[in-house]
Amino acid sequence: MAHDQIFTLRDDFGVELKIIPVSLNLDKEIHLLHIFEEDHTVKKKFIRNELVLVGNQILTSTFSDTVHFMEELNLFDFGNNQNKYLDITEYQSTKNLKLKHNGDENIFISRSEAKAMYKIFNLAFLGYSVAAVLEKEFRFTPQLLTKTLHDNQLLIR
Question: Which pLDDT score is estimated for 120?
């Protein structure tokens, strides 16, 4: 995944949106796709969506799902079997989170990794307004999201 580039696309109203991949956990290929618009007249940046990508799999495609995933990370110690994205596992008296996804390999997240990912997610919002994502979230169709990610080499075919 290219971490040093900003990719752009336009929403239905012609507003230019920028996509920046943010690594939540580089070793486990867990990334946040930070989608925002810039309004140069008011000198503000507005979050339009946040997506979680694991390897080549799109884990969340809406802002609310991404926030849900992050809260499951945050509630590591209080997890249960009703979690949508993560299972609590235990090996030799050490608790880990196991990512529920359709990938070939198991991905385990330690307590410190979960805390770090949650912190990075929150830091990604510094300097951005979230009003736009709540009022006019840029929603990807699965086809548009896949095409955009492939075109910008954020997914490997």
Answer: 96
